[in-house]
Every structure is written in structure tokens, then in C-alpha cells.
Design goal:
The chain is built from ten helices and five strands. By secondary structure, the protein is an alpha/beta fold. One of its GO terms (biological process) is regulation of DNA-templated transcription.
């Protein structure tokens, strides 16, 4: 169900100043069941861009005004998680290779094979779905841990450090019974059933989210 939800949110964003190329690719993608949004310039895409966009970007290298490479650099600075496929002319391959080194996912030369570009887009959308799931999981873990009271967080940190109930009681100067109550609430709020799961959740929440 989660995969279906993510897929329903995803779009393929086409950025190309060539109207015929935009329309041709949009028709190909829509006829294969993809959601598509088209833009005639990098500037137009940046105006519409927001960090929650899901899907992938098919980006022409050479455009008047902001080039595809410049747009890619701007998106990198904005910490965009959209996978990028560059569409290039033959003479643009060195530039596309340079873009790969800066984080682009792939490039394809004009005139491209329909099956090949569909395959690249499928791969990028799958990678984006996985990344979105990781980010949502990280946000959910952070939310669960943030729901703990200050005392529950203290107890959790001591549990994760390997302390036994008696040691926690001594450290916090509370009764073992109170430790047991806090411990049960921690396990319930973080939604784990074992100390091993709790340790794993705390470690995952402490790690930077996928980007």
C-alpha cells in the first residue's frame, strides 16, 4: 500500500525548451501510465519547485537562459532529492559525464530509444520511492521519540546504554517500580517490543535523514 501511495504522488518533470521534444516525451510517458509535468525553461521549473516533489527530472542540457547544468547545480544547493536524467546532443556528452560526477543519475543522447528512456525513468522512480520511504521512516522515528517526556527520555537513554532497572533507579534516584512504568511507556511510545529494537530505532533517529 505504501508503494502504491508513493507511486501515485510521483511525477516525471520534463524541462526542455524544445516544445516538440517536450510534447513527444510527455505523450510517450502519459501513454505508459506516468504522471507528467512539463516546463520550457529551468527558471520555470525553479518557480514551481518545492522540496516535497516526488518523482524524477528529465532535463535538457542546452537551453537558453539557465542551462540544464545550472539548474542541476541550483537544485543540488537546495538539497533536492529528485533523481535527474540529462538529455543531451552528441556534443554534450562530456558535460553530461561531468554532471554524473556531481550527482546526476544518468544521461541519454538524442535521438533516444523509447524503451531505453522508459527504463531509465522506471529506475529513477524506484530509487526515489525508496528514498521517500527512508525519509518518512526517519521522520516517524523522530516524532515517536519526541513524544517522550524528559524523564522517559532519560530512562530511554540509560536503557540504550545498557543499564539495568536497578542501575537506572540508582542513577535517577527513583524506585525500581517507577523505572518499570517509565520503561513500559518508552517501549509503547516508540512502538518497540525489545531493547534491541529500541536501540536500533534510537540509532536510526540519530543518523542524518537520507538526502
Amino acid at each position: 500500500m505504501a508503494d502504491e501511495f508513493l507511486m501515485s504522488e510521483q511525477s516525471v518533470y520534463i524541462v526542455d525548451d524544445d516544445e516538440a521534444m517536450r510534447d513527444s516525451l510527455a505523450w510517450l510517458l502519459e501513454s505508459n501510465g506516468f504522471r507528467v509535468r512539463s516546463f520550457d525553461s529551468g527558471e520555470a521549473f525553479l518557480e514551481a519547485y518545492h522540496a516535497d516533489m516526488a518523482g524524477c527530472l528529465v532535463l535538457d542540457v542546452r537551453m537558453p537562459g539557465m542551462s540544464g547544468l545550472e539548474l542541476h547545480e541550483r537544485l543540488h544547493g537546495l538539497r533536492s532529492t529528485l533523481p535527474v536524467i540529462f538529455v543531451t546532443g552528441h556534443g554534450d556528452v562530456p558535460m553530461a559525464v561531468s554532471a554524473l560526477k556531481k550527482g546526476a543519475n544518468d544521461f541519454i543522447e538524442k535521438p533516444y530509444n523509447n524503451k531505453e528512456i522508459l527504463g531509465l525513468i522506471e529506475q529513477c522512480l524506484a530509487a526515489n520511492r525508496e528514498l521517500c520511504q527512508q525519509r518518512r521512516h526517519h521522520a516517524d522515528l523522530a516524532r515517536r521519540i519526541a513524544s517522550l517526556t524528559p524523564r522517559e527520555r532519560e530512562v530511554m537513554e540509560l536503557i540504550v546504554a545498557g543499564s539495568l532497572n536497578k542501575q537506572i533507579a540508582d542513577e535517577l534516584r527513583i524506585s525500581i517500580k517507577t523505572v518499570e512504568v517509565h520503561r513500559a511507556r518508552v517501549m509503547d511510545k516508540v512502538a518497540v517490543r525489545s531493547v534491541a529494537e529500541l536501540v536500533q530505532c534510537v540509532m536510526q533517529a540519530a543518523a542524518p535523514p537520507a538526502c
